[in-house]
Amino acid sequence: MLAILGVLLLIWIAFVLLGVFIKGLVWLLIVGIVLFVATAVIGFVKREALSHRK
Question: CB 45: neighbour CB atoms within 10 A?
């Protein structure tokens, strides 16, 4: 599960970088940032839940 989240974080970073370098894709920058933050929060919450379950 954490591997999938890591891959998603890398994809969102790629979207952010594309949005930065291609000025016409500012919307991609915004979407990438929002999805990166959401994925990071979900990963953190799931990791904390798994560590408390043991």
Answer: 10
- 26-53 helix and 2-21 helix, angle to the nearest 10 degrees: 160
Contact 39, 4 (CB under 8 A): no
* Distance, first Cα to last Cα, the chain: 17
Q: What is the pTM of this model?
A: 0.55
E runs forming strands in the chain: none
Amino acid at 34: V
Determine the pLDDT at residue 4.
79
Tens-digit pLDDT profile for residues 31-51: 778 888 888 888 888 877 667
